[in-house]
């Protein structure tokens, strides 16, 4: 349920910040805090421990990327969704590399933002149309330049199928419907894959799948 999702809104413009917080609250989310800059965002996040942080990148004299890194260092299970006026490729890639789950531009509607926060809370990557392909291409480029490292753990065919669909952003129920199994079986495969790969959540699984070229076009 959406009322279980705690959110912190970080933006240096007070009218926009409070407006977004109000919109999310009216739609059933629990906005537990707001912050105007990177230092405040990290400090307040540590205190309130939100499930999702809605983060602008341009925070006056401070950087949203710094805030993302600081929050995730203290709270690795918190999920960051960037909401920025910028759709520049460098901004998107820097945010994702810092640990953001997704990236929306501020032209998104209130309904799109609500859905994005809900999906982010579930660990599903969310991007404004056109930006997902950019991120996928960058991860594939990086994966192609570095083939060193430990051997890839062996996954079963079904674990690989589930991993591929996780990386595409499908929920456990959607994956179960696609593969003809229950969502509990899907979750079992997800947990098994996490253990084998020594990863912690679905976001890391999605990145792994992209880096290894497991995701279909």
Automatic annotation (TrEMBL):
Keyword Repressor: no
Domain Response regulatory as annotated: residue spans: 6-121
Keywords associated with the record: DNA-binding, Phosphoprotein
Domain HTH luxR-type: 148-213
Organism domain of life: Bacteria
Record has ATP-binding as a keyword: no
Pfam hit, one: GerE
InterPro entries: CheY-like_superfamily (IPR011006), NreC/VraR/RcsB-like_REC (IPR058245), Sig_transdc_resp-reg_C-effctor (IPR016032), Sig_transdc_resp-reg_receiver (IPR001789), Tscrpt_reg_LuxR_C (IPR000792), WalR-like (IPR039420)
Cross-referenced SUPFAM superfamilies: C-terminal effector domain of the bipartite response regulators (SSF46894), CheY-like (SSF52172)
Residue numbers bearing the 4-aspartylphosphate modification: 56
PANTHER family: TWO-COMPONENT RESPONSE REGULATOR
Protein name from the UniProt record: Response regulator transcription factor
Lineage, highest ranks first: Bacteria, Bacillati, Actinomycetota, Actinomycetes, Pseudonocardiales
